[in-house]
Amino acid sequence: MKKLFCSFIILSVFFPCVYAEPSHITKDGNGGYIVTYNYKDKAKKGWYVTGRAELSFLNWKNNYSSDYPLIEEEFNSDEYSFEPVFGGSLSIGRTFNYFWRAELEAGYIGQYTDKDAGFEFSMSVPYVMLNGYYDFINGIYVGVGVGAAMPITKLDGEVFISGDRTETGFSPMGSVMLGYTYKLDDNLVLDLRYRLSGFNGTDQIRNFQYVNDGDTTIYEAYLENDIGFVLDNSISLGIRYEF
């Protein structure tokens, strides 16, 4: 009898605990249930990887100069505004404390090409960034990034006789970001991001030959292209995989 009584006591304590409603489920006044979730019940912590396709709109100025005697020393300055180029990036990151993320991003701002005065100019920009983000519970996030850009410029054409065809620079790069994420399933997240970033361009010199009117002597002159600050407005769409 004592064993039966003890078994009854154990079952009476155990079964209510097993079948009790979870803390996020409560009954309403009509006999139904109300389900509530804390953001932390769904948010993940840990590592993730992201791949992005990016459209950049670049703004900069080519400051050309030369010692060619028939023109002024500063003979041309081309301004480029919101020139579109395609690119992309890959990043690996980690989420801390549900709201904060940090990631390392390696990307490429696609090549822009322009023909001018008998030669061809082009520029592309690989870069590496360390980004920090704060995620709001509604999917919106803000972020900042610091890193380095390696702008690559080319001056190409039959007029040139010497000098490096390709020049690679190195510049600090900074950015601010605003984005929105949408969870596709437990591991995949759709990521839409706007980024405003800036860096400095390159300084490149090439030599060319010319002949003055009525003169058979061949002269040599230089052409220098000094690119100053480059502003990049970019919009990217990415897929993030959370482990």
What does this protein structure show overall?
The protein is mostly beta strands and 243 residues long. It has a domain of 137 residues: Beta Barrel (Porin), CATH 2.40.160.20. Helix content is 9%, strand content 67%. The protein contains two helices and 15 strands. The strands form two sheets. The protein has an eight-stranded antiparallel β-barrel with strand order 3-4-5-6-7-11-12-15. A hairpin with a 5-residue loop joins β1 and β2. The longest helix is centred in the first third of the chain and has 18 residues. The radius of gyration is 30 Å and the shape is rod-shaped. The two termini are 54 Å apart. About 6% of the residues have low confidence.
In short:
The chain has 2 helices and 15 strands. By secondary structure, it is mainly beta. Strands 3-4-5-6-7-11-12-15 form an 8-stranded antiparallel beta barrel. Strands 1-2 form a two-stranded antiparallel sheet.
List keywords for this structure.
15 strands, Porin, 243 residues, 8-stranded antiparallel beta barrel, mainly beta
Please tell me the overall pLDDT.
86
Total count of strands: 15
- CATH top level assignment of the domain at 47-62 and 77-114 and 121-152 and 166-202 and 229-242: Mainly Beta
The largest beta-sheet arranges its strands as 3-4-5-6-7-11-12-15
Write the SSE topology.
Blueprint: H1 2-19, E1 25-27, E2 33-35, H2 39-42, E3 46-66, E4 76-96, E5 100-116, E6 119-135, E7 140-149, E8 152-156, E9 160-162, E10 166-168, E11 171-183, E12 188-200, E13 203-211, E14 218-227, E15 229-242
Antiparallel strand pairs: 1-2, 3-4, 3-14, 3-15, 4-5, 5-6, 6-7, 6-8, 7-11, 8-10, 9-13, 11-12, 12-15, 13-14
